Amino acid sequence: MAIFLFKKVMKAIFKYIILTAVWVCMFSTFTFSQNVSGEEGLNAFYIEGLGNGGLFSINYDRVVYQGERVHGFIRTGLTEWHADDTNALDIGIIQEGGILYGGPNHFFDSGVGVTLWTSDIEAFIVPRIGYRFVSPEGLFIRVSPAMLVINTGDKEDSFGGYWLGLAVGYSF
């Protein structure tokens, strides 16, 4: 009984540590980033269907490394899930790191992300590749096939299938 209780407490603590880290990263990006000359287009705010968040998500990403042809980015986002058998709200926190290759408007886009769910320890692990277009006016479009791996904590990982994600938003 004590071991079961200990595991449950540790899972709850882990979940809140992860959520705190996500919020700190999100707000520090907004607080400390400056839009100086040459930094236009490094931020993007967009909605995505059939991507890292499952059916839909709202996301923000930021290019944190900008080379001549290779760029590194981080992404954070939120999604929501309602199971058929319950009215309980389950919020998913999306985190991803990735690499862009190309430019200035057309990119090969690859990344590996995790979606953590607030109701339990379950997580989606999502490796993906795709194409990203960013227009000079700020139009952001990304098409990316993704493979969904579901990590259920105590159980073995399971394959969740392939998704063809489509994201549309604004780059600034």
Secondary structure layout:
Layout: H1 2-32, E1 43-51, E2 54-66, E3 70-81, E4 90-102, E5 106-117, E6 123-134, E7 139-151, E8 158-171
Antiparallel strand pairs: 1-2, 1-8, 2-3, 3-4, 4-5, 5-6, 6-7, 7-8
Task: Please outline what is shown here.
The protein is α+β, with helices and mostly antiparallel strands and 172 residues long. The chain has one helix spanning 2-32; strands at residues 43-51, 54-66, 70-81, 90-102, 106-117, 123-134, 139-151, 158-171.
Description:
This protein has a single domain (43-171), classed as Porin (Beta Barrel), CATH 2.40.160.20. The chain has an 8-stranded antiparallel beta barrel. It has one helix at 2-32; strands at 43-51, 54-66, 70-81, 90-102, 106-117, 123-134, 139-151, 158-171. It contains 1 helix and 8 strands; from the N terminus they run αββββββββ. It has 172 residues and is α+β, with helices and mostly antiparallel strands.
